[in-house]
Amino acid sequence: MRYFIEFSYNGSAYFGYQIQPNQISVQEELEKALSTILRKPIKTTGAGRTDTGVHAKKMFAHFEIDENVDDNLVHKLNSFLSENIAIKKIFEVPADLHARFDATYRTYEYYISLEKNPFSKDSSWQYWRQKPLDINLMNEACKILFEYDDFTSFAKLHTDNKTNICKIYKAEWEQLGNQLKFTISADRFLRNMVRAIVGTMVEVGSGKIAPNDLRLIIEDKFRNSAGVSAPAQGLFLVDVGYDF
């Protein structure tokens, strides 16, 4: 039987979601907890992978087991796991439903703090030392993203991506008091794509480049044409969509 897990995590303590040698990851912690409680080796497949320091408010993974799971598994996992990972629910799904490949969209939020704030230093880009940002120019640049589907210029170099084609459904900046929030939703994302887009948008907002320069950057299909990646701690995966 196949089960989906819905969970969230603070990524500050982890070297990303996906298991990797000699580094602590969210997936490793999750599999260790499942294997200990269920008393058999459990492997999980996540809806995607987040980079070092990136957070998730809503993430999914699936695992398989040849027996029904205990109704109290959510509580047991939350008792076993560190305070950085919270299990929301676990539910059975069709045996062919895949946490990664059957996701129809993913949504991220990125937060920029416009004032020095010790309470958001691990959850936003502390931007208060730098030039003011023009959110109207940044939203003007957002509209250009919808004109394209090849985002090679925002992709991390030397990855195993078979394609850099993505369909963006939403891209928008909002001001929330002394914070800016960027929301972006697409059918898929390339590694480092959101942080590269945010870094480039900040160049637009600070007047370093014009909104229309974004077209040239995208059409170059060259990572060095885009801005520097925004810091990881401001990025949150907030939703993953499925047809269930």
TrEMBL record:
The opening ranks of the lineage are: Bacteria, Pseudomonadati, Bacteroidota, Flavobacteriia, Flavobacteriales
Which family does the UniProt entry place this protein in? Belongs to the tRNA pseudouridine synthase TruA family.
The active site consists of D51 (nucleophile)
All copies of the Pseudouridine synthase I TruA alpha/beta domain together span 8-102, 149-243
What Enzyme Commission number(s) apply to this enzyme?
Answer: 5.4.99.12
Q: Which residues bind substrate?
A: Y108
Q: Which GO terms describe its biological process?
A: tRNA pseudouridine synthesis
Which keywords annotate this record? Isomerase, tRNA processing
Tell me, in a sentence or two, what this protein's role is.
Formation of pseudouridine at positions 38, 39 and 40 in the anticodon stem and loop of transfer RNAs.
The name on file for this protein is: tRNA pseudouridine synthase A
Q: Which SUPFAM superfamilies match?
A: Pseudouridine synthase
User: Which terms does the record give in the GO molecular function aspect?
Assistant: RNA binding; tRNA pseudouridine(38-40) synthase activity
Task: Note whether Transmembrane occurs among the keywords.
Answer: no
